Amino acid sequence: MTSDPGNLWAASARERVDAPPLAADATVDLAVIGGGFTGCAAALRAAEQGASVVLLEAEGIGHGGSGRNVGLVNAGLWLPPDDIIAAMGQEAGGRLIAVLAEAPDRVFGLIERHGIDCEAVRGGTLHCAHAPAGLTDLENRHRQGNRHGAPIRLLDAGETRARTGTEAYCGALFDPRAGTVQPLAYCLGLGRAAQAAGAQLHAHSPAAALHREKDGWTVTANGHRVRAGAVLLATNAYHAGLDAPFRPRFVPVNFSQFATAPLPEAVRAGILEGGEGCWDTALVMNAFRLDVAGRLIVGAIGDAGGPAGRVHARFARRRLERLFPRLAGTPFEHVWTGRIAMTSDHVPRIARFGATGLACFGYSGRGIGPGTVFGAAAADALLTGEMDGLPVAPVDSHAERFVALRTAYYEAGAAVMHTI
């Protein structure tokens, strides 16, 4: 579990998994590096099929973005469908759209099957129009989504106000397939289920080196060796310090969240009574939702722990007041930040290195559904050798240009917008 004391999810997670540090050599069918959604979903899938699995996590299970995100279980990517097809082509793009349309079913199905205690609420999501231009964007997304079979519905200002409890938006796009979870608890529950199926989970076991052998791979961690027939690199935005034949390339972007104490029932009456999770169409995107205890959580691009932290905190307070004027002056009890792995086209990648090595990364802020689906599919592919079932065709390499400059651009842009 993440050790960040400000992280609401770490403070409120009811799931637990015992993952002792790696303390001996091991030989397995599959080694998984990274204990987030992707890694835990892969370990669960592989173990349920009878494969021997070792999962290595540098910190605690769910320490990275999986334990720090908003908790929206979306049915798709941030990109609208036509943009996905433009980036990938008709066949490949259509396949990814169809696969991710079913991602919430997969997530909530796993929660139910394994009894994961993660505050799961399938109340849908609302993509809220912050201005008339945003509503035009949503109208376009609505047309595209319906054309691809998505049961999404465009709401006018009145219905948006009734669902959200705020007058800040002029419309919204409602997706009934989606929902919310306590993300760290969901990740821990996946890990617990994987362990119950026979996988060996080891936290505080940073992989120091990954080397190809003639009959597989050797991973070194805590001074011990794990020999594996196949390996999945599932570090995503928290990849660091690993000597390996492949390194994921992405632009790290920070996203911070601010949570109030549980609001009295009379105060939170009328706010997201359907349990929806929300984000908006602003250039520097904002999100808001309630947890099951009634805490209001406001999120936005930017690093609350960085040099502009005070700017982001002041913005969050103003945003809270703008959304719900009666909450003006309500303090935040929890503040935390996570990293997003962005790709230039916002399409996730699966990279293949060697005959039995895969890396999944670049969810661009949509980690729960895609991470769950990609992790399970990668486990299948590595154990069977059949790559046709992967959500996206594997690539041999992936490059991102001007990574440091673009990361600074996102942070500086967020700081400027939050100052304005």
DSSP strand tally:
18
Give the overall average pLDDT.
Answer: 95
Question: What share of residues is helical?
Answer: 25-40%
What's the order of the H and E elements?
Answer: HEHEEHHHEHEHEEHEEEEEHEEEHEEEHH
Beta-strand content bin: 15-25%
Distance between the termini: 36 Å
Account of the protein in words:
Helix content is 33%, strand content 23%. The protein contains twelve helices and 18 strands. It has helices at residues 8-12, 37-48, 81-88, 90-101, 103-114, 132-147, 157-164, 183-196, 265-268, 309-323, 368-384, 403-419, and strands at 26-33, 53-56, 72-73, 125-128, 153-155, 172-175, 179-180, 200-202, 207-213, 216-221, 224-233, 251-260, 277-280, 286-290, 296-301, 332-342, 349-352, 357-361. The strands form three sheets. Strands 1, 2, 8, 9, 10, 11, 17 and 18 form an eight-stranded mixed sheet that branches. It has an eight-stranded mixed sheet with strand order 5-6-4-13-14-15-12-16, sandwiched between helices. Helix 2 (37-48) packs parallel to helix 8 (183-196). The longest helix has 17 residues, at 368-384. The protein is globular, with a radius of gyration of 21 Å.
List keywords for this structure.
globular, single chain, alpha/beta, 8-stranded mixed sheet, 420 residues
Short description:
The protein has twelve helices and 18 strands.
Topology, please?
Elements: H1 8-12, E1 26-33, H2 37-48, E2 53-56, E3 72-73, H3 81-88, H4 90-101, H5 103-114, E4 125-128, H6 132-147, E5 153-155, H7 157-164, E6 172-175, E7 179-180, H8 183-196, E8 200-202, E9 207-213, E10 216-221, E11 224-233, E12 251-260, H9 265-268, E13 277-280, E14 286-290, E15 296-301, H10 309-323, E16 332-342, E17 349-352, E18 357-361, H11 368-384, H12 403-419
Parallel strand pairs: 1-2, 1-11, 2-8, 4-13, 11-18
Antiparallel strand pairs: 3-7, 4-6, 5-6, 9-10, 10-11, 12-15, 12-16, 13-14, 14-15, 17-18
Helix pairs in contact: 2-8, 2-11, 3-4, 5-11, 10-12
